[in-house]
């Protein structure tokens, strides 16, 4: 009886392996709570990916420990293409920021795509005296100032620390918040009057004159904010910093499966409705083929490790 059962199991396993990928639903773990940009983008692209792959894409939120809980769960999942991860640029930052991050961003995962990105902005309350970044930096030399970020260790936080402490050599106190929403509300109230934040959600406040953008960390001026100079323009070379959303699979995922997932992602992002929604969220679509994606993630890991070291940034 045991031999017969073993044969049945073996035949079933062989039949499963013989089926072309995918033959069952795919689970997407989102490393952050519902409602944020990572979660929104996951739920936008999942149905379109499912149409291409011919299987449902099930989105599950796995928040906790700065996105590391979801990372750990996906890293331990079978490398068969049925469990993938959506994470933010914190994926590249955390290994340098946390002494025991629990994962190697280059060895424990296969990067499938950097779906979309947006730059960070240095903004001030409309009533703040400084009208330019140069004026803000000059004020910081003579007056105690404070700035807010969405949280310690986020790319907006690190952009500001690199700009203020390392590049401009001024001391502006950091005030971490629990997300971009609370930060925006605080800066609109002038407490603190300065912020470093990702572009998403702030365009209406900037357009309405409630906030004033002094600089962008983008490689070129933003079409939506053509009068806002880039940090590079303002004399800070190499400060092309982005908050991005990436898709990852466990290391060892077969190349053909990784390619199918990359193809499905690229196709989803080319649909007009997805482009329109991402434009509304102030995200630029940045997905590339697998090789280019891996190279970009590698460069981001090295870049943010240097920024963390240079700034001495800590989780507060």
What does this structure look like?
The chain is an alpha/beta fold. It folds into two domains: 25-117 and 242-311, Bordetella uptake gene, domain 1 (D-Maltodextrin-Binding Protein, domain 2, 3-Layer(aba) Sandwich), CATH 3.40.190; 119-216, D-Maltodextrin-Binding Protein, domain 2 (3-Layer(aba) Sandwich), CATH 3.40.190.10. 41% of the residues lie in helices and 21% in strands. It has helices at residues 2-18, 37-53, 68-75, 90-97, 133-140, 155-167, 180-188, 203-207, 255-269, 272-280, 290-311; strands spanning 26-30, 57-61, 83-88, 109-125, 145-149, 172-176, 194-198, 211-216, 242-250, 284-285. Strands 1, 2, 3, 4, 5, 6, 7, 8, 9 and 10 form a ten-stranded mixed beta sheet that branches. Helix 2 crosses helix 9, helix 4 (90-97) packs across helix 11 and helix 6 crosses helix 11 (290-311). The longest helix has 22 residues, at 290-311. The radius of gyration is 21 Å and the shape is globular. The protein starts with a helix and ends in a 5-residue tail after the last helix.
